[in-house]
Backbone:
């Protein structure tokens, strides 16, 4: 991405929104608008930028969150396109060579991820200069959550990701992208450990995100993606599975999937009760998560509809699920050849009731006494991740990590947006599939 473009968008947005005290000095500046220096040198100005990160990441059809869930869901057969007039979604759902650098969803996704990273850097770097270190640590941690998410979100879809923001930026391998996101999270954890986040900061940002649990949960997730299993396990052990951390919505700031797809029945819907899994791994129809994540319309096609965390305009979307943390532990023990402990954590998810889960996600299935082989254990972990984390934007990464056949997905990695290729000679070659 071009640094100057991101800067113009960021500053223009902030200067129009920020309200600060102006001096009585006679000049020809607009007294209702803050200067860039004022925005980035005050706690109030930086908080406005930080809150903007969440808006860009979560709100609307052009948000990172909507595109993450939809692109991932269409690529992995969780979802299908209801109306072929939705060209960008149709291209993703068709896959293969139908997806190219002109795809508007991929271009928007690339742009919003880079914008969040750029803006987050402004918050993180300038917050360090504030005298109130407890408020500053909140700003650093909050911005780091969205920066780490955005780096890792890009690494899930592209073979290489930008090493930074700027004209002619170089690229790093996608696994190094996950490691970079982990470094961002580690720096934030260091900040909040040194200076506990102040109550005044918490009251100044949208409710929902539990900062410390989220930092550790995301570190566990991205460490798992990077194959750093001991590190993933250690981070997962620090996460409370009884605490919710959510992106919250209301009547004015709508849940982006509900707004675009659920409420219209005109864009995407779940394929069926298999939740996109092949028959050998499909969930039982008695699995409570099938009815949690899907609903049935008996009269108007399609029969299966989006439910769960996208069922209402104000329905909160989890940043991570408690079940994800438990399944990270199950996988880490399995990768360490401790099948006994792995089975214990895996069965904790399989037998969990909705009442025992903070979000009401429960399979309520009988425990599995024996998996027969190590390969079968990994297959079951993959299966449970796909069901427990349906429409969370994680399945494509899981399909690659668990070595699922390429025939089960529409693409393996995405082509780079032409907007990036036209502006950056370092843009890598597109992957063949």
Residues:
């Amino acid at each position: 991405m071009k640094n100057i473009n991101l800067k113009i968008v960021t500053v223009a947005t902030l200067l129009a929104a920020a309200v600060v005290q102006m001096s009585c000095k006679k000049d020809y500046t607009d007294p209702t608008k803050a200067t860039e220096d004022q925005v980035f040198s005050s706690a109030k100005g930086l908080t406005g930028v930080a809150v903007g990160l969440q808006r860009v990441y979560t709100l609307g059809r052009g948000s990172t969150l909507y595109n993450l869930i939809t692109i991932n869901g269409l690529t992995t057969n969780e979802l299908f396109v209801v109306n072929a007039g939705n060209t960008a979604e149709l291209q993703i759902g068709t896959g293969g060579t139908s997806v190219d650098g002109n795809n508007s969803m991929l271009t928007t996704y690339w742009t919003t991820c880079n914008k969040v990273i750029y803006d987050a850097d402004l918050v993180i770097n300038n917050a360090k200069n504030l005298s109130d270190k407890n408020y500053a640590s909140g700003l650093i941690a909050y911005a780091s959550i969205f920066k780490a998410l955005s780096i890792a979100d890009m690494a899930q879809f592209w073979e290489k990701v930008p090493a930074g923001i700027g004209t002619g930026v170089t690229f790093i391998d996608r696994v190094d992208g996950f490691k970079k996101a982990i470094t961002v999270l580690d720096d934030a954890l260091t900040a909040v450990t040194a200076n506990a986040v102040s109550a005044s900061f918490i009251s100044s940002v949208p409710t929902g995100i539990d900062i410390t649990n989220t930092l550790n949960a995301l570190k566990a997730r991205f460490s798992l993606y990077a194959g750093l299993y001991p590190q993933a396990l250690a981070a997962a052990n620090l996460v409370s599975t009884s605490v919710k951390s959510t992106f919250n919505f209301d009547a004015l700031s709508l849940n982006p999937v509900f707004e675009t797809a659920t409420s219209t029945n005109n864009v995407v819907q779940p394929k069926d009760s298999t939740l996109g899994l092949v028959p050998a791994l499909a969930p039982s129809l008695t699995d409570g998560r099938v009815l949690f994540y899907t609903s049935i319309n008996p009269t108007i096609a399609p029969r299966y509809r989006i439910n769960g965390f996208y069922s209402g305009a104000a329905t909160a979307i989890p940043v991570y699920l408690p079940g994800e943390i438990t399944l990270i532990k199950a996988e880490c023990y399995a990768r360490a050849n401790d099948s006994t402990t792995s089975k214990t954590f895996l069965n904790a998810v399989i037998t969990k009731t909705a009442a025992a889960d903070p979000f009401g996600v429960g399979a309520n299935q009988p425990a599995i006494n024996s998996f027969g082989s190590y390969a079968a254990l990994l297959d079951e972990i993959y299966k449970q991740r796909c069901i427990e984390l349906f429409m969370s934007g994680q399945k494509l990464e899981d399909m690659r990590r668990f070595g699922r056949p390429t025939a089960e997905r529409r693409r393996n990695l995405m082509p780079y947006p032409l907007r990036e290729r036209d502006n950056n000679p370092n843009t890598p070659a597109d992957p063949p599939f």
Summary: The CA atoms of residues 203 and 268 lie 36 Å apart. The radius of gyration is 22 Å. Strands lie at 79-81, 160-162, 171-173, 246-247, 268-270, 294-296, 304-306, 317-318. Confidence is low (pLDDT under 50) at residues 1-9, 15-29.
